[in-house]
Amino acid sequence: MSEFLFVTWDGGGNVPPLLGLARELHERGHVVRVVGHAAQADRFAPLRFSSHHPRREFTATGPVNVPALLSVFADRSYGAEVLRLLDTRPADVVVVDCLLFGVMDALRQAERPYVVLEHTLDSYLRVAARGPMGLALRAMRLPALRLLDAATERLAATLPELDAGHGPCTHIGPVVTGTSATPTEPRVLLSLSTVAFRGLPARWQRALDAVGELNVPVIATLGPAIDPSRLRVPANVEVHRWLAHDQVLPQVSLVVGHGGHATTMAALAHDVPVLVLPVDAKSDQRLIDRRIRDADAGLSLPPRASTRQIRAAVTELLENSSYRSAAARLGARIRALDGRTRGADQLELLASTGGVGL
Question: Is the pLDDT of residue 242 over 90?
Fold first, then answer.
């Protein structure tokens, strides 16, 4: 039996891959500890969870801006806390979210090995590390790319087929489960991020207005960042604040999403094509929508797409079976990779060497 420490933050789509691997290792009989933001505690039950209280509070449901995110990514107090936890109780392997550079820096300086878990395309991280985000981090003496590359292992929980231009990493595959969807009638799942990005309510309204004029049932999962009372909901739309996507994806024909990696991979794992409506140009959403288009597994529209444009794209994706066929090819690959099993296997291997690589 080995002991693992996972380090995370309350960012929305970054959580499912880490949670899946942590639970898999727990079910195999290992000791699994998780440290994250206090708002995440319930989600990680029954794992051993300890809360980090940053100097600047951040939750996925609060206003999102660059300074707030950078305060999370560059949180050196979090790194110091992780070191204290390890001094109190060592772990065989420490797994760090790929955006927690303050934690990585503390571990590197203390010469403690760590594994980076990438919950998006590795190619995006490499581009972002050289862009404005990387420049801001370097100004805080946090060289993002160097810290990523200093990891014992970088586990990319994504499809290698979609990750052109990636660096040195191990693609374990998306940590999702899925079966080929078999809807009895055309049905759409509408999900535009759990994170409170600026302008999100207006994008939701345009999407709802677009599908409201179609003769198809729609399931909308708003998430905690959107108040349903602020929206006009058409009669054919069934609204939920939260609903596990695995419960509905086997019965849907199309996902209209924001290009978040977790939602997109979950859709593909069920052979469901995707219409991407990005809500944040600075995140990985633009790159993911481009890779989905390149794979012919869906379409994308600009962030300010009109109701008419959204309606036309939804109609095209529902009526043209070629998108479903392309999504199904990627779905079969995701299910064959089985990221949860592959990732846990890799972490067990690292634990056998003290987390320092083979």
Answer: no
